[in-house]
Fold each of these.
Amino acid sequence: MTRFKFIALLTAAVLGSTALFAQEKKAKKARPSPPATVSADIDGNEVKIAYSRPGAKNPKSGEVRKIWGGLVPYGQVWRTGANEATLLTVAKPIVIGGYSLAAGTYSLFTVPQADGSAKLIINKKTGQWGIPYKEADEKANELARIDLKKGKTDGNVDPFTMAVEKTGAGAGVIKMAWEDTQYSVAFTNKK
C-alpha cells in the first residue's frame, strides 16, 4: 500500500468515526425522554407497548415541572409519553374497556380531565409524531375512547412509566403512572 493511500484511508476512518460519534451524541441530546418497551404474555397473546419516558425535570433548565394540568394539560389530547405516538401491539384480538380490538398495532393517546377522569384513545393510524393531535383530522382514525380508572401510586413515580400485567386467565391490565397518579384499563383475550 502506498503511503498516500494509507494516509487517505486513515483520514477517512478518523473522519467517519468522528461523524458517527457526533451523530450518536446528537441523538442522545435530541431524545431526553428515552424509549422503552413493555410486554406481557397473556395466555399466548403478546401485548406490547412501545413508548418514550419523559421525566418531571425540564431537560433544558432542570426545573421540576407540574405534570398533571401542566406538562400534561387537562382536557387536551396527550401523546401518552413523549416523542412519537405510543404504540400498542396485540398479537391476538382483545376486549379492552368493552371495545373489541383486532390483532395489530395502534397508537395510544390520553385525555386527562381536571376532575381526575381520563380517556384512552385507540387510534388505528401509526407512525405519527405524538403531538399535535388534530382531533378533526384524527376522528376518522379513532377506534375508541375508553374510560381509564384513576388511582394513587405507592410512591412518587418518575419518569413516566407504563406496564402490561397479567391479572388472571386470559386477562390483563395496562397501567400508566407518573408522580403519584396511576391510570389503568383492564382487557381480556377475545374468545
Note: Residues 3-30 form the longest helix (28 residues).
Amino acid sequence: MKHHPTKYQPKGVTILHEDRDIIVVEKPGGLLTIGTERDKIRTAHTILNEYVRKGDPRSRNRVYIVHRLDRETSGILIFARSEAAKTFLQGQWQETDKRYLTVVHGSLTQKTGTISSYLAENSAFTVYSTPDQTAGKLSRTEYTVLKEVKGFSLLEIKLLTGRKHQIRVHLSEQGHPVVGDKKYGKGNDAFATLALHARSISFTHPVNGRRMFFETGVPEFFTRLIGTIEVPAADMTHG
C-alpha cells in the first residue's frame, strides 16, 4: 500500500499512511513512543500531536497511543486519531499480525518454534520469566531462523502476545540475546544499536473495515551484520 503525503513530513518519524482515523508511521531506534513521568522529552507521540495540530497549540486535534515499541526498537507504529479508533484497534490486537526482524547472537538448535513463558517485572523494571502463573502474564513468541552467518542468526518473529520487552527477554533466556541489547544481552556486546525492527503489520481498519497491510525495508544495520537478506513476504490472509 503506497501513500505519498502531500503535506510536510514531521521531523523524526516517517508517515507511511494517514487518513481521518489512523496514522501509521515508521519510528527510528532511539525515539520513545510516549513519554513517562521521568521522560518528558520529544517522543513519537509528541511529534505527531504537533503534526495534527498544524502549529495551532489551541487545536483539539490529537493522536492516541494504540501500542508501543521500546525506545531502541525501530519500525511500524499505529496511532489512532480518535478514542473510538483506539478502542477498536486495541480490541482487535489479538487478530493483528505483527512481524519483527531481529539479529541474535549464536545459532539456534531449533530453526522454528514458539517460546512461551509467564513474564513478570521487578522493581528495577527488568522483565523476566517466572513459573508463578499468578505473578506473570502468559507470553508467546513465534520465531523462524531466516539466515545464519559467523555467530549471528537472523530471525523473523511473529508476536503472539505483546508484553513489555517480550522478544528481548525470550531470546535472551534461550541463550541468544538480541545484538546490541544492553539490558538483557551479553555484557561484552560491543554494538550500540539494538537489532530489533518491527517490520510489518496487518490489521482491520477501525472505520471502513478493510484489511490494511504495511511493511518497511530492512535496516541497514542488519545487512552490515549478516549481509544480504531475503525476507519472505508476510502472509496477509489471516491475523
Note: The mean pLDDT is 90.
Amino acid sequence: MIGSLAAFEIEHQDAALGIVLLREARRALGGHPPPIARAWLSSIEALGHASCGDQVAALAALGEAERAVAAGERHATPPWPWVFPFDYGKLAGYRASVMVRLGRGEDAVTSFTESLASARPSAKQRGVILTEIASARCQAGDLDEAFHLAGEALSIGLTYRSERIMHHVRVFRRNYSGPVTAKVREFDDRLRATLI
C-alpha cells in the first residue's frame, strides 16, 4: 500500500514525497523482499528520480529493476499480493516513462515500442501510455503526431470518464510551450470543450 501511495504521489507531481514513501515501503518489506517487489519499487523509484531530474539515480534504479526482473524469472508464479508477473514488458513501459521525464524522446519511443509489443494494455492504460508517447514525440519534434496521440488519449479519457487519463492529458498540454500550430489549436479547442 505504501508503494502504491508513492506511485500516486509521483504520478501527481510530488516526486520527492513519493521517493520518501518508497524508502518506507522498502523498510516495511525487510531485507529480502521477493524479486517482483524489488522490480516494482525500483521502477517506481526510477520514475520518481526522473521526475526530479536526477538522471543518474533514475538509471541506477532502472538497473536494479532489471536485475530484479531477471531474478524473478525463476519463479513460476508471482507471490501474493501480486497477481501478474512484473516482466520485461512492464519494465519497458516504466523505462519509457522515465525516458520521457528525462527528455530522452527517442529512447522513450524505443521503450514504448518494446512495451506495447509484449503486452496489450487495457483501454484506460492505453490512454495514459498515449500521453507518454505524445510527450516523447513532442520531444522528438514531431508535433502533429504528438498532438494526434494526445487527442486519442483525450477521446479515451472522455469515453471512460477517467480522471487519471484527463490528468495526464492536461499535464501533457501544460508542459508544451512551443508554437501553436493548427493541430495544437484543434487539440486546445477539444480540451477546452471538456472543461466547459
Note: Residues 122-196 form one domain.
Amino acid sequence: MLGGNMSSQEFALYEELLYNMLEHVSRPRLMVYPDITTDNATARIKERGRDFEQIVPRDYWEALNQHYNAYFKHYNFSELLTIDANNLDWRKSKEDLCYVINLIDSKLGVVKTQ
C-alpha cells in the first residue's frame, strides 16, 4: 500500500487511466507547483482550522509532500514553474500575491514564444 491508501496495482491503474484521459485533452501551457516544507504546510493547515484536516497525522502530510516532490522532479507533461512558497503568503500579502502573479506571467511569456 502507498501511504495506506492504494496498493501498487491500484496506483498503476490510476496512472494508466490518467494518461489515457490526458491523450484526449490539450496540454496545459504551464503547471505551477508551490513547493513548501511539511512543517510550513502543516502550520498553515492548523491556522486554516478545518476540522477534517486537523485530525490527519503529520506522517501523512510528510509522505504526501515527498510524493509531490518526486512527481514534480520528473514532470514533463508541460512547462513547470516551481515556486518556493515557504516564505510567501499570497492569501494575506498583496505583495506576495503580486510576486507570484508576476512569476507566472513571466513564465507564460516565455512559454508563448517557444
Note: The first strand starts at residue 30 and ends at 35.
